[in-house]
Amino acid sequence: QNLLAEKVEQLMEWSSRRSVVRMNGDKFRRFVKAPPRNYSVIVMFTALQPQRQCSVCRQANEEYQVLANSWRYSSAFSNKLFFTIVDYDEGADVFQQLNMNSAPTFMHFPPKGKPKRADTFDLQRIGFAAEQLAKWIADRTDVHIRVFRPPNYSGTIALALLVSLVGGLLYLRRNNLEFIYNKTGWAMAALCVVFAMTSGQMWNHIRGPPYAHKNPQNGQVSYIHGSSQAQFVAESHIILLLNAAITMGMVLLNEAATSKGDVGKRRIICLVGLGLVVFFFSFLLSIFRSKYHGYPY
């Protein structure tokens, strides 16, 4: 009983200073793994050091901090639940002990017994939003946490600046607004949006992948992810350029077929457009073939 009281008192003291308690291997084994324990512990296994280049870890940590702060400063806060973090560079032995080779990972260690399969948060399927983590914790511990987020006015300010900029431009050009009816301009703007979305920019915004991957053993840099379940930022840029080149080829083919200019010039335009489509579409297929193994391209 004295040992349990000392452990709870120490965790409460650390939590009063910081909502998420940082742990190394020794602290993890003493306060999380070793009995006696009458409290639940949520552990985030991560790799936050810059050399690890884990942007997902940083984003997940921000959500984790929001959740831990919501619990720490709520009226329901008690010594039944603690939030901790184990960084790979501070507790590599813990990762080895748990046979863990990926980060970030969230685990719940119950007051009694060993963690079950459901005590590992399904980050790949659910994501790492603080609200989703809170729901998972409620299912595992019956502790309900209401998430409070600090106000963020960056989106409102950016929208206000954009509206002001567009309004200012329209005011300056108020005597000549024919450019609004320019079909080519609207078509180019629509294509930019389409290229951005089809290349995976929204996935990058949600998941925050690294720009590329450098192999620490041989120094080789990979710009294309080898799995169909992930991508690098550089990969989305490559796909965007390939789609743009293919579209340009299709535009040139259409121009060659519909224009009434010189036949020789139209033939050159047709050959250039056909070359763009054939070459860059083949390149695009080769990328998909390298990611989707076994598909009969």
Mind explaining what this structure looks like?
The protein has about 300 residues and is α/β, with parallel strands linked by helices. The chain folds into 2 domains: about 5-140, Glutaredoxin (3-Layer(aba) Sandwich), CATH 3.40.30; about 180-290, no CATH class. It has 11 helices and 6 strands. It has helices at about 1-15, 25-35, 55-70, 90-95, 125, 130-140, 155-170, 185-200, 200-205, 235-260, 265-290, and strands at about 20, 40-45, 80-85, 105-110, 215, 220. The strands form 2 sheets. Strands 1-3-2-4 form a 4-stranded mixed beta sheet, sandwiched between helices. A two-stranded antiparallel ribbon has the order 5-6. Strand 2 (about 40-45), helix 3 and strand 3 (about 80-85) form a beta-alpha-beta unit. Helix 3 crosses helix 6 (about 130-140), helix 8 (about 185-200) runs antiparallel to helix 10 (about 235-260) and helix 10 packs antiparallel against helix 11 (about 265-290). Pathway: Protein modification; protein glycosylation. It comes from Sclerurus mexicanus. It is found in: Endoplasmic reticulum membrane. It is a multi-pass membrane protein.
Shape, please? elongated
Helix content: 40-55%
Widest β-sheet, arrangement of strands: 1-3-2-4
Q: Average pLDDT, to the nearest integer?
A: 88
- Beta strand count: 6
Low-confidence stretches: none
Class based on secondary structure composition and strand pairing: alpha/beta
Largest sheet properties:
4 strands, mixed
Provide the gyration radius in Å.
27 Å
Order of helices and strands: HEHEHEHEHHHHHEEHH
How many domains? The number is 2
